[in-house]
Amino acid sequence: MSDVFVGVDVSQAQLDVSLRPAGTLLSYPNTGTGIEQLIQALGPLCPTLIVMEATGGLERDLIAQLRAHGLPGVVVNPRQVRDFARSVGRLAKTDQLDAAILSHYAEAVRPPVRELRDEGHQQLRAWVERRRVVCDMLVAEQHRLQRTREVDVQADIEAHVEYLRGRRTAQDRQLDTLLAQPAFEAVATQLQEIPGVGRILTATLLAHLPELGKVNRKEIAALVGVAPYNRDSGKMRGARRIWGGRSEIRPVLYMATVASLRVNPTIRAKYDRLVAQGKPKKVVLTACMRSLLVIINAMCRTHAPWCPPVLAA
Q1: Where is the Transposase IS116/IS110/IS902 C-terminal domain (predicted)?
Q2: Residue 203's closest CA among 185, 220, 179, 235?
Q3: What span, in angstroms and rounded, lies between the C-alpha atoms of 288 and 128?
């Protein structure tokens, strides 16, 4: 029997399914019953890979049930799928066409089947995301307060700002509680020994970077999006730039790096050395972000305590 690749386009109401190479199109409601029917249909086919896009949580029940039944489900980055669709000339977009593209992507790219996060990691990720949303709202309201001249509106915004600050404080306490759980306590304590690394960066890395400590320094930098890529063509040598990666991590890593410049002698020494070489300060900060991430990754891999390492330039 030939390999069977399955693409599932997940929407709030239904699951559009494409089987490749047969080209069969199926549809099921996105409910518990519909997922059971899909699993019953796929089971006898022994699919090689079942691919769906990340959809902000709509895919969680489906991927959990697929993996519980021993089926190789994978959640992939929607941007990568759209880039693949453009590369093969598929510009139109419908649910059924998306399912067909996903099955084609599964056959051509064969993304690896990764271990699913347990309930504790999912809860930590949910609270990290919730805190980020509250912080974004708080910043927006503070900017709005600066632009508002009406006294009664200012009072209303100030009350909302105070409420959001209270929610952020409560969420920080919740993160402390989660990081104190046995699944996270050892790693969280280890990482927060590093000068400049605090609760928020630790929680963000544990929530959004399960590969931490399992890959090498180049791979971890690429996953977060702080690895420089060449831009060369013929005799032209362009400036190297970072690209892609997990946008949820970079802003938090940036703030931790800025703090590290004050309290972490290793990061400060690297910053001063690169600035003295005439590097632009934005480039230097990115290099320091990468160095801090590499230190964290190495400590997680070796389970070693913090000690100031000597970093290469």
Answers
A1: 189-271
A2: 179
A3: 24
Asked if 143 and 161 touch (Cβ cutoff 8 Å), the reply is: no
Q: How many angstroms separate the Cα of 31 from the Cα of each of 36, 75, 240, 252?
A: 9, 18, 47, 36
Q: What is the mean pLDDT of residues 134-142?
A: 96
Alpha-carbon distance of 139 to 312, in angstroms, equals: 37
Output the CA torsion sign for 93, 95, 96, 102. Answer: positive
Range of lowest pLDDT (60-64, 157-161, 249-253, 290-294): 60-64
Structural domains for the chain: 5-109 (3.30.420.40), 119-179 (1.20.58), 202-302 (no CATH)
Which pTM does this prediction carry?
Answer: 0.81
Cα pseudo-dihedral 74, 80, 84, 85, rounded to 10: 90
Give the side-chain half-sphere CA count within 13 A for 154.
6
Dihedral sign (CA 150, 151, 154, 160): negative
Least confident of 85-94, 198-207, 248-257, 289-298: 85-94
Geometric angle at alpha carbon 210, from 209 and 211, rounded to 5°: 90
